[in-house]
Amino acid sequence: MDIRTETDDRGIVLHIDGNLDERGAEALRRKMSGIYQGKAGGLVLDFSGVSYIGSSGIGVLILAYKQLSKKNTELVIKGLSQDIYELMKSLDLHKLMALEKKTDGGSGRLRFSR
Q1: Is residue 33 classed as helix, strand or coil in its secondary structure?
Q2: What is the Cα–Cα distance from 30 to 83, expressed in whole angstroms?
Q3: What 3-state class would DSSP assign to 31?
Q4: What domains are there in the chain, each with its CATH number?
Q5: Cα Dmax for the chain
Q6: In this predicted structure, which of 4-8, 69-73, 98-102 has the lowest mean pLDDT?
Q7: Side by side, which strands form the sheet with 42-53?
Q8: Is the pLDDT score of 93 beyond 50?
Q9: pLDDT in the model for residue 25
Q10: How far apart are CA 91 and CA 95, in angstroms?
Q11: Cβ(81)–Cβ(92) below 8 Å
Q12: What is the CA radius of gyration of the chain?
């Protein structure tokens, strides 16, 4: 799991390259925990390099939403593969955070963990 940080006009951008399984989700959670205490501004998660997401990854996204909503801050997830986008939409995550699909129409693999 590789997570690169930069800023743009929407706020802090985390470029995620790897799988959001248990290990990847924990790495993302640790990276984002410092952002919650930081200055105001949006958080953009670039999922262009994410090939699959498990329930732990979904849990980290919901935690991020809860933390950021306390600061009235927007969470955007961009670069989603069609499969991951559809999963997140079926979980009604589009009602909590902005979801943006990949422009190349790439497909990711889904993995569900128990």
Answers
A1: helix
A2: 26
A3: helix
A4: 2-101 (3.30.750.24)
A5: 38
A6: 69-73
A7: 2-8, 11-20, 42-53, 75-80, 98-101
A8: yes
A9: 96
A10: 9
A11: no
A12: 13
Q: What type of residue is 9?
A: D
Convert 63-87 to b/e letters by CB count within 10 Å (16 or more is b): bbbebbeeeebbbbbbbbbebbbeb
Encoded amino acid at 35, one letter: I
> Is the pLDDT confidence value at 106 over 70?
no
CA distance linking residue 51 with residue 20, whole number of Å: 8
Residue type, 20: L
What is the SS3 assignment for 110? coil
Please answer whether residues 80 and 100 qualify as being in contact, where contact means their C-beta atoms are separated by less than 8 angstroms. yes
Report the SS3 class of residue 63.
helix
> Distance (Å, rounded) from C-alpha 53 to C-alpha 77?
13
